Amino acid sequence: MCIVGMNRCKGPGQGAEEQQEEEEVTGMVCQEVDLRDGQMKEVTVGDQKVLLVRTRGQYSAVGSQCSHYNAPLVKGVLVGDRVRCPFHGACFNVRTGDIEEYPGLDCLPSYKVKVEDGKVYVSIHKNVSDGHFVISGPASLVCAETLRQNCYQGRIVIVTKDTLPPFDKPKLSKALDLDSSSILLRPSDFYQQHGVEVWTRKEVSVVSVDPAEKSVKLSDGSLQRYDQLLISTGCRSASAARPLDCPGWDLHGVKLLQTHEDANEIHHSALGQKAVVIGASFIGMEVASYLSNTAASVAVVGPSRYPYERSLGPQIGRMIMQMLEEKNVKFYMTDFVDEIKGENGKVDLEIKHKDLFLGVIPNSDFLTGSQLEVDSRKAVIVDKFMRTNIPDIFSAGDVTSFPLTIRGDQRVNVGHWQMSQAQGRVAALNMLKKPTKCESVPFFWTVLLGKSIRYTGYGEGYTEILFKGKVEERKFLAFYIKDEVVVAAASLMFDPAVARVAELMATGQVISKAQAQ
């Protein structure tokens, strides 16, 4: 959650033209005729790699690696003045270095380019230093940073029930033993440097939306007033709110993965032991993948025939299942846990067929009685400006139900990291009375046994899947079709195809079934 107190500068994440610069180095990197419009090339100046781009007859140069996980942008997709990362979909302006789509937080450094006598020169600098209230999550951090970048000088407070300031939560299920310092989105001194207060280990119990009050009550009983409020509390496992519907769910050996501490505890308790993962979701499968290298054995219990069957389809689900079976992971599908038994820290499961779908639910219980509008799943309803039905209260991230542009403004709830960050930025700009709509295209990835599946779009309700390549060879591009058009795409070992589809969708282009065939 982010609380904003009003008062009114580029700051964190700014472009290279604002950064501290030192010794300049210039190098001739190519001939003017070497690149055509719409082409890019990775070049080296001094000992630094640079992405050189030609668009509309002009050259520009920016940092060569995505600011998210350092992916090589030269392998991405260039459309107009924007390059999209092939791995996780972050986008950057190739003229300014500005970040235009998430994930990632920082802009790219931009460099001076000169064309002289048919030769292209790039100059770099050897040492380039790269009273709102926000409640939790990646959206809150991006919101706070965007406010500071746009010269907001008032108080900003981020409140989270976690023990850590905003951190890279998608990493938890991919590597359970990570040190907390390695997953922080920003180091602790960053918040002090930019005047952002971070209150950890605090939960919000009640939100007052009385225009005269404008207050937030925390779980410790304290009352905090706000001028503008961002609710970005995310979702949680349904089993965290409604514990596993079976006896024994509260035994010592049963763990839920929600926090960094949970991840570390699961890692240590599973070392050399028999592990069972309940749920064949993206998170469950990533945990099973990780434990296949550390536990004595791993079993997965899931309600569908195959993992991801509902979202990615049976062909991909079957392939993923085979990949993990090769690592001796056992699957008990179309099943669920009927009872958990145990003593002395050890548990046994009784598995029976049982129709039950856990999934996730929005963290919005604290809004009960606040008159804030929520949908049937208790997701906070917002418009394209991330505004709720109550003036000066905004919401962003997994907790929201919002109109999705690429589906004709169909109201959806999308639990993607990238979308949360994009919505945090949009909320901040609208807090500052800079009208901005959320037009982002969902982009998602999952990592299993070192292989990454990428996904873009919104495939709910698809009726057909078209494949390029072969799923059984674990190299493919899948198009999800609904009403004769592509509504989503997924790939494995087919980069940068999904990034290209995302860019087409972002520019409003419709990909027909005929074009996908």
Explain this structure to me?
This is Apoptosis inducing factor mitochondria associated 4. Pfam families: Pyr_redox_2, Reductase_C, Rieske. This protein is of the alpha+beta class. 17% of the residues lie in helices and 33% in strands. The chain is built from ten helices and 34 strands. The strands form nine sheets. Strands 1, 12, 13, 14, 18 and 27 form a six-stranded mixed sheet that branches. It has a six-stranded antiparallel sheet with strand order 2-11-10-5-4-3, with no helix packed on it. Helix 1 (137-149) packs parallel to helix 8 (417-431). Mean pLDDT is 89; it is low at 15-21 and 352-358.
Chain-wise SSE layout:
Blueprint: E1 2-4, E2 24-31, E3 39-45, E4 48-55, E5 58-63, E6 77-79, E7 82-84, E8 91-93, E9 99-101, E10 110-116, E11 119-125, E12 132-135, H1 137-149, E13 156-159, H2 188-193, E14 196-199, E15 204-208, E16 215-218, E17 223-225, E18 228-231, E19 235-237, H3 238-241, H4 260-270, E20 274-278, H5 282-291, E21 297-302, H6 309-312, H7 314-325, E22 329-333, E23 336-343, E24 346-352, E25 360-362, E26 380-381, E27 393-395, E28 400-404, E29 410-412, H8 417-431, E30 443-448, E31 451-457, E32 464-470, E33 475-482, E34 485-492, H9 497-506, H10 513-516
Parallel strand pairs: 12-13, 12-18, 13-14, 18-27, 20-21, 21-22, 26-28
Antiparallel strand pairs: 1-13, 1-18, 2-11, 3-4, 4-5, 5-10, 6-7, 7-8, 8-9, 10-11, 15-16, 16-17, 19-25, 23-24, 28-29, 30-31, 31-34, 32-33, 33-34
Helix pairs in contact: 1-8
